[in-house]
Design goal:
Layout: H1 8-16, E1 23-26, E2 29-32, H2 36-42, E3 51-55, E4 58-62, H3 69-74
Antiparallel strand pairs: 1-2, 3-4
Length: 95
Amino acid sequence: MHKRGKTSGQKAFSALVLSGGRIFKSGNSLAVRIPTLIAKRLHIEDGVEIQFGVDDDMLLIRKPPATSLDDLIDAITPKNLHRSTFENVLESERW
């Protein structure tokens, strides 16, 4: 039988287990309670958006990567660039 190595998520998980938790019902969904120690470390508070992922049998939760103005500008392509709004501007007009 081939023994699989640990995935990066499993390595990180084994290194960072701080406390257990419990899943509970919230309306029609399931919810996860995040311990205060973890929430403070990640600067997570009520209303902050998060992303979910799955790696084998692990549920991964993270804050979305920060998007800077430079990242947004770098994402502009000819395909997603809208046409100019000011096509008929006269020379004497100033903005």
